[in-house]
Amino acid sequence: MSELAQRYELLRDLGVPTTASEDFDELARAMAEKAGFLYGFVNLFLEKQTFIGLHQPPADSGHVIVGRTMNRDHGWCPEVMNRKKALPLPDVHASPRFSGNDVVDAVNIRAYFGAPLIHDSGTVLGTVCVIDPDRRPLSDARRIRDIVIDGGSQVMARITRTSLR
User: Is 137 exposed, middle or buried (0-12, 13-18, 19+ CB in 10 A)?
Assistant: First the structure.
């Protein structure tokens, strides 16, 4: 069975929504606000990256408004999925490997912090992340990374509670 098929089967068995969810929107908002970022995401890797949790600036803010899906190879979450560990990028332009990315130009992103959502079975369901147009000082990277890792733990706890109902 393919990794994607395993992910779908596990999500179905757990009863996790694969569309927008107010509960996950709230978790994305709390994570973004705690980190001081404009955007927060709870992201499942399905046919596309699917943001079941999304926090972003108001439509009239002058900032880019993102949709609920994105290509599977865009952004930095695919890297988090592959490495199965957090990826702190306080300034995406500081690394040639991560500066060339469709999201950098489309959303004008300078800072990214992401962490994987790993089920007890070892299946990576997706990621949580925060992004912002302002780079962050390196001295703040550990604090923000820990907020995102904690956000991922909260999402997995919610997923586990959902499956127990």
Answer: exposed
Greatest extent of the chain over all pairs of C-alpha atoms, in Å: 46
- Residue entry with tokens 């890797």: 45
Residue 26: Cβ within 10 Å count: 14
Neighbours of 25 (CB within 10 A): 18
Place of tokens 């393919």: 2
Domains and CATH numbers, the chain: 3-164 (3.30.450.40)
pLDDT, one tens digit per residue, over 17-53 is 999 999 999 999 999 999 999 999 999 999 999 999 9
**CA 109, 111, 33, 42 torsion-angle sign:** positive
Alpha-carbon distance of 163 to 13, in angstroms, equals 7
15 strand-pairing partners: none
Nearby residues of 36 by Cβ (< 8 Å), 6 or more positions away: 132, 144
pLDDT of 11 higher than 60 = yes
